[in-house]
Amino acid sequence: MYTKQHTIKAPVTVEGVGIHTGAKSKMVFLPADVNHGFKFQRVDIEGQPIVDCDVDNVVDVSRGTTIEQDGARVNTVEHVLAALVGLQIDNVLIQIDGPEPPIMEGSSIKFVEALMEVGVEEQSMLRNFFEVPEGVFYKEDDRKVEIAALPLNDYRLTVMVDYNSPVLGSQHAALNDIADFASEVASSRTFCFLHEVEALRKANLIKGGNFNNAIVVVDQVVSKETLDELADLFELPSVEVAEEGILNNVKLRHPNEPARHKLLDMVGDLALVGRPIKGQILAARPGHAANVAFARKLKSLMLKSARKNVPTYDIHQPPVYDVNQIEEMLPHRYPFRLVDKITEITDKYVIGVKNVTINEEFFVGHFPSNPVMPGVLQIEAMGQTGGILVLNSVDNPENYWTYFVGVEECKFRKMVVPGDTLVIKCELIQPIRRGIAKMKGQAYVGDKLVTEAIMTASLVKKDN
Fold first, then answer.
1. H or E segment and range at residue 427
2. Is 265 annotated as a binding residue?
3. Can 366 be counted among the known catalytic residues?
4. Domain of life, per the record (predicted)?
5. CA-to-CA distance for 306 and 312, rounded, in angstroms?
């Protein structure tokens, strides 16, 4: 999986009709800055309102996933979002001049091809993964739906569907590597049963549906008269049933194409959690309603974890700044270089790491028989981490110094000893004004807060 955020290199446009509304629309994917996420913009509505791709904005899951914000609605978003997640794209603005993305040929492949044509580019920020911390379970007894998310340092999905149909039977699909989405899942088309077609028409849905953008499964004997009526309904010369039980001799792209499409839908629906996921997803008989309910459960856990405010540190991820890059930014040298790496940085916060070893110079004289890292040096480590955040806010940071001008509300909550790894987060309390930065610093060992303080720093140009 990508560790850095990605966007697309250039705008790209797709056009078509929506499967349910039947409305024509033009959709333009646009590059977006880091931490932008996925957003739709209804350019056909006054004020061109933005609709965030967020599970809290879901308003309908009857035959697709529909989101709405401030009166602006976008129908059937799951195939578009699946394409973005499948290509590991993080930041895109999607401008659309109608109520629903085009169905194209019923899968995500046309979106994937359009996005791959312009290409993706890496951005400077690390991806903000939601790592499933524990087993999360969802169940609907009446529909025999079961979904689970388990901790995993990757993103994998397995789906089982069973429609009690002699044509489809029980099917499974798995995506063990998100990099395989484009080749293994993206081309899998939406499907429905023949007996559902009339009901969907009566419900004022599938206005843009036809036998070119959906698989219609025939799981019962159909008269010639019924087939002729369907031909008239969809304005076709004739309609036939293939040996596989599929209308109009449509060739399946995969033997388990329906199961793969259900997996595709789940990838798109779970994008509404709002962050890329690390976890193993196992689903039996999923659908949009269950996917969205499960996404809400994941988001609730994600927000709960975020409220704990414990920064995470993955030793396998490459740092944003390593020791050599930190040396170029900070003037500190041995034995006062107290930051080993920067793992994450935005315009509002920074996360740094200090590995505490028995070879530290200060352990020689500071409680040598019971080595403890001096509290003042923990504050210094937080100050150096915060200094990188402040320097990151200016052009040509090598031309500036950062100085401590105040420390308040300092608390030492737990001893730091050799073998500990300090994970330090410094977050701006208010915007930097006139070179003065005020930030809250917190240092953790594991999930335990060991030191915290409010720090004020001054940004000074070297020639001053």
1. strand 421-428
2. yes
3. yes
4. Bacteria
5. 10
